[in-house]
Amino acid sequence: MARATSLLYLDGVSVSFDGFKALNELSLIIAPGEMRAIIGPNGAGKTTMMDVITGKTRPDTGEVFFNGAIDLTGEDEASIAELGIGRKFQKPTVFESHTVWDNLELALKAPRGPFSTLFHVIAQSEKKRIDHLLDLIRLGSKRHELAANLSHGQKQWLEIGMLLAQDPKLLLVDEPAAGMTDAETAETAELLKDIAKDHSVVVVEHDMVFVRSLDVKVTVLHEGSVLAEGSLDHVSADERVVEVYLGR
Amino acid sequence: MSFLKSLFLILGLIFGIFVSPAVAQSEPETLRPLINELAKGKYAETEQQIGALAATGDPAVAPALKALSEGDLFFRKSDGVVFIAEKQGNSYNLKDPLTLEAAGEAGRREVKKIKVNNKLRRVIRSALGSLTLMASDPNVRRLAAVAIFKAKDPEGIEALDVALAAEEDEGVRRVMEQARAAAVLNSDLDETQKLDAVATLSDMGNRDALSLLLSVRASSEGVVRSAASEAITKIEKSIATWDAAQNIWYGVSLGSVLLLAAIGLAITFGVMGVINMAHGEMVMIGAYTTFVVQDVIRTSMPGLFEYSLFIALPLAFLVAGLIGIAIERGVIRWLYGRPLETLLATWGISLILQQAVRSIFGPTNREVGNPDWMSGAFELGQMTITYNRMWIIVFALLVFAGLMLVLKKTPFGLYTRAVTQNRRMAASMGIRTPWIDALTFGLGSGIAGIAGVALSQIDNVSPNLGQGYIIDSFMVVVFGGVGNLWGTLVGAMTLGVVNKFLEPYAGAVLGKIFVLVFIILFIQKRPRGLFALKGRAVEA
Amino acid sequence: MMSSFLFRAMDAKAGIFLAILGAAIVLVPAGNLLVPETSPFHVPTYAVTLMGKYLTYALLALAVDLVWGYCGILSLGHAAFFALGGYAMGMYLMRQIGPRGVYGDPVLPDFMVFLNWEHLPWYWYGFDMFWFAALMVLLVPGALAFVFGWFAFRSRVTGVYLSIITQALTYALLLAFFRNDMGFGGNNGLTDFKDILGFDIQADTTRAGLFAASGIALVLCFLICRSITRSKLGKVLVAVRDAESRTRFLGYRVEHYKLFVWTLSAMMAGIAGALYVPQVGIINPGEFAPANSIEVVIWVAVGGRGTLVGAVLGAVLINFAKTWFTAALPDIWLFALGGLFVVVTLFLPKGIIGTLGSGWTALRQRKISARYEAGSDQPPSPAAHSPGAAANISPRAENTASSTSGAAKPQPAE
Fold this sequence. Notes:
heterotrimer; B: alpha+beta; 2 domains; 7 strands; C: mainly alpha; two-stranded antiparallel sheet; two-stranded antiparallel ribbon; about 65% helix; about 0% strand
């Protein structure tokens, strides 16, 4: 697929830390509206890839384009977020001394400058949207609870809710099912599929059951580059993938 | 007249040279008549008599000649015997001019001063020069040559020539050659001689040579002048180099002080990540330990004073280390992972420690003495190196090396590194992490304590001693890169040298301000210091 | 928009606090000026000045709390902004002396005559006018904070690194102001003030006026701080404090937010310094001492960081204690202060107000959720919740005891 029609376009991206190549000539293309699962063993470069896309880490070489035309390597985290890329971290990070409601209000798409927030008065439409999100992430009854008091799974959901509140074009979701019960995992998969209907989503996950339940195209990363790509059945049939996962 | 005088002097000297080995150390009885002769006659005769005295070549006449030039030589009117006299009230204390023993008193009217004029003084000076130039003690010979160098007296040339022929000590010989060169340049000798002299001075290469050559350039012309100019440029260059070397030395010296102050912090802050604002107080406690040790030694066993620092070192390490462990167990361990709270709590501890020391020892500076081997200085080329600075540099490097060794080669060091890198893993491998924490903190504090022993030698020992170092220490550690002992070494030395190079242009205070501003800007550029750890470990 | 901004600042809790402060602003000067000296209700002038000084300290504490309690920036250099504001005011007061100085020079302050200076340095121009000096009280600390913050926050210097360089900043200024060539009176600083705005600075009425001015400044700054911390901006600040990089990934430009409160806070510290100087009658480089900055932090910590009332309360309480101790038991004061640092960080991490407040909030939380569960769907009122009171300080002192073998929990940072 050409760069112009892609939503996210990575080409030949390399990152090294003190000689250790975290990403090695990684190339990856996400189409608009696509949902993609990314799997790979520890140290395959999944988190570093997220860091590069969201501006936390600058690539040593390579191109990163969003929406076909916007070069992300020159932007910082805040402007990339404003461009419409939302990120959920591996370890759930919500604002623990804020209530669930405040967490969502902060994430809500609105002008981000200090002066606009200083004089901001919450509008009825915003309240409606937060209520809607609260229903979606099943935290309606916890709206005045401090985020610190939520369970692990609830925090994961709250973070996904914050991601949605940003109304991004592309969601990067890092291990959304980590530390969840089976029931929660299944619910999360449903939630993500819901979201994928009107957003592009990239999910990084270890849990194969979870990935299978998503039923989308899978990219296998290994030692910083793409090892295989295709349906889950296709990649799990790939000998190299089996070798990487099971050892030789 | 001048020619005659020179001739006489030369004769006298030659006589002296050939005879002196035989008559050197002649009995006072043979010299006394010669000295007593000084009482007779006018300036011209006195000049001859001086020559005769010089001709004996016996250093014993030097005090008499010296007294003569200073106007302290008198003769007794009644019998014409010559004494060195010192006025006391209305009378004079007499001393024998040869043995320098007291020889009674004399009234004001009983004695008369032997008069000298400037010309005679010069004669005496070169006579003394030649006398001492032949002395058996090389130090006396060297001083004599230096005296001639300062006087630039052309009449010393001959004496120097003779002395040079006999001189065997290389060092003294060089000084004599330099003195001769100075004298030659001041004489009316021919150009070749003077050119040689300029060359000698140019090799000498210090400030004295420079000022001499400057006056030569001003007063001479032709080849000598241009040779002098050349030599001046050369010397100026060499002096600039030496100045730079001296500055580097001062910088390294300051750097080693910073290193000493910061190295304990490099462990507690750098390795453990604990912000210990009471670190400076550990240094202060080390210094006060030294004071107490010296105090005990002074009152009970004064003979041990020279070794007081060696006794204080282990004690300071123990005292500061134990206080450190107590602080870690009592306060800091509750605050791991909350650096800002740690900072505040340890600041509180520093206030308590300061006030405690103030209550016990009083608010004023306490006197900590330097042992002999820590005082004095020596010259290296054109640099002056004081012993206390030198030993502190050596000591700082030893402490650094020792600490490196402990951290890299001992099991304790291994455990420390393990705990700081991955506490949970270390704990599950059976390392008692709480004890490693306490001991590591104790080690850092103990090192601050022994730094205090060293700093007590160059700084005022007062309750505020530590406060003066805390900001600098943090600057060093942050500049060098947290978690990296080599960074601390390089950081300390760099800041020390930069500071000393700024001082001549900006003054001490402004220099320090520049360094602070520089570091503030530097941290913006490299928030994790000079030798930052990179990679995923940092993000975790 | 503006009115809603200010309106947000007011509620019952703020009302009680402001009422107390307002009463003090009226009663203390009245007790000094109107009540006869024989009356037991008479407030002596020295007490008015002392309390005025406390109010300026409270304002300084408010400034520190705004950046530390709400935005997580531990400044160990706020004394620098305080002193700069003080120097700006001091320069105005020096120019007001005019020919009444010891040397009688109509323009040059005494110390300049003493140093054989011929002309007034250019940076002293304009300080004979009050409006100019007042402007500088705001602009000089503000500009310094802006430049410093612009560099520091853009390069993402955070946590203790930032604390240490703020300390280096005030230390550098301390050294600089000690120099005679700086033209600020060197070691001795600026003193021997005669009058302010034409009023004799020693007069009881002036003293009372300065007290009232300090109180009013405190009220205004309190209102500003409160409307900031209760706005969405305030929520963003707390978010930055708790999870800086998360905030960034939400699209907030963290450095702009930090720069905004940092500069504002420096200006407030400058105002505090400017009100402090005419009341104590002197400003010298000692005010820049790093120790002063750290002391302010402990006022805030004791009162309760992340609560504005706590900062004010802490400043007044500790300074009252200091006045009492240094008079009665001077040797004990540093022990007490040092002990306070340790005790507060170990046992009272939320401070007085924070500890009281969090108990109350927890109770309310429980009630609200109980009510929600019972089915009465109240419209959400986010403003009812004070984000600062429940600062991110879990009672870890107890935790750590049992889990020292486990990983030390990192401060919420990157």
